[in-house]
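pinging the channel bc i need a second pair of eyes. not urgent but kinda urgent?? the chain im working w is below, pasted from the shared doc
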Amino acid sequence: MPVPPPREADRAPAPQQAHEGPDAEAAAVAARYARRDARTDARRYTLFDAAALQAQQERLRAMLALWRAHGWEGLDGLDLLEIGCGAGGNLLDLVRLGAEPARLTGIELLPERAAAARARLPAAVRLIEDDALRAPSAPASQDAVLLFTVFSSVLDEAAREALAAAAWRWLRPGGGVLVYDFAVDNPRNPDVRGLPAARVRSLFPEARTTSLRLTLAPPLARAAGRLHPRLPALAAALLPPLRTHRLHWLVKPRINVTEGSQA
């Protein structure tokens, strides 16, 4: 049976020009990423780096724990969407965890990252190259929406709120939004802003929220990894106050039609 050629990332119609507000923030995010050193990012986030590997494995274990507690026994049959999918690493993890490629969607603003995701992911995964606020996703079409280190890159509060509203709108009752982000500001990087737990709750006021503290402060984790590849995991276990990130599972209540109440 011939293998279908990879699909190019879907592209939404050209955006209208905007000078302020959520639409303008997308252009600002792209400009901030353009200032980043791609070679430095590649060195920091390769899984050959002990700190990056520890962070990924810790996050995957935490995700599975949250989803098991939610009652999921697997990802097959679920529709999952990631906002800001980058080069596709998280979507690839979902495939390895049993998600069906044809039921996965990734949205990525930056063309070069969308192209990298298209090159590495199964052809059945749908990729949309555009601002998430303009993405063609139907209401109540997803069992989970993922945003990993996305809100911290969005500095405009109105844009943050619009992004949260879109994720919540796309979610089915009984599903959840999964947010992974750092909770404190990075004094060395003015292009990001921490996302405290209280702000997450205000962005999703109707959600039932479970939050976990993860990820040893990256500079410390990288320093530990240079000494020994097992040290980042040990340090993260022994020093929970130095974990800078949070994983939030925000569940959309089901509506009990017969009683007119949420469950």
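so The radius of gyration is 18 Å. and Confidence is low (pLDDT under 50) at residues 1-19. — does that match what u expected or am i reading it wrong
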